[in-house]
Amino acid sequence: MAEAVTVKFDDSEVQAWLSQLGESAKDAVRPASQAGAEVLYREVLARVPVSTEGHWFYGTNQKYYFEAGTLRKSIYQVFSEDNSTGLKATYHVAWNHRKAPYGFMVEFGTSRAKAKPFLRPAYDAKVQASLDAAKTVFFERVQEKVGGLQ
Q1: Domain extent at residue 32
Q2: Cα atoms in the Cβ-side hemisphere of radius 13 Å centred on 85
Q3: Number of helices followed by number of strands (H, E) in the chain
Q4: Which of 22, 28, 86, 102 is the most buried (most CB within 10 A)?
Q5: 110 domain-assigned
Q6: In whole angstroms, what is the distance from residue 34 CA to residue 48 CA?
Q7: How many alpha carbons fall within 13 Å on the CB side of residue 139?
């Protein structure tokens, strides 16, 4: 009668697959994040108010004229290297403050002008769609590179 049973399992294939999975996940983070940012970017563009005529913006020491649609044209999305590391990719969706310095007044209002928010409502309306898009791209990218364990 045997006193012990020895079972050996070669896990090298599993270890290689897990290593490849980690690398694939790392490579998929930025495209996935961009896909989510794109959903929010398009919603912001759809919601930003556009005047029918140009308007004056009064700064501290002078006034500036802005053509209709300037704020919409200043909307951007950009990858933020400073806020991204390893498995975290950050994109900013906002307006260019130099091209449309009055954007914050539109978003938040002033003592004389009612707010016409577009960033926060866009986020609220599309945050789940943005997350869904990011997840879809993430899993598609990982699946393309790694596939299933054979």
Answers
A1: 21-146
A2: 2
A3: 4, 4
A4: 28
A5: yes
A6: 20
A7: 6
Nearest one of 130, 116, 128 to 40, comparing CA atoms: 130
Of the pLDDT bands very low, low, confident and very high (cuts 50, 70, 90), residue 2 is low
36 occurs within a structural domain: yes
Q: What is the DSSP string of 17-62?
A: HHHHHHHHHHHHHHHHHHHHHHHHHHHHHHHS---SS-EEEE-SS-
- The tally of domains found in the chain comes to 1
Going by pLDDT thresholds of 50, 70 and 90, the confidence category of residue 149 is very low
d(CA 63, CA 102): 12
Does 6 reside within a domain? no
- Per residue in 109-131, pLDDT tens? 989 889 999 999 999 999 999 99
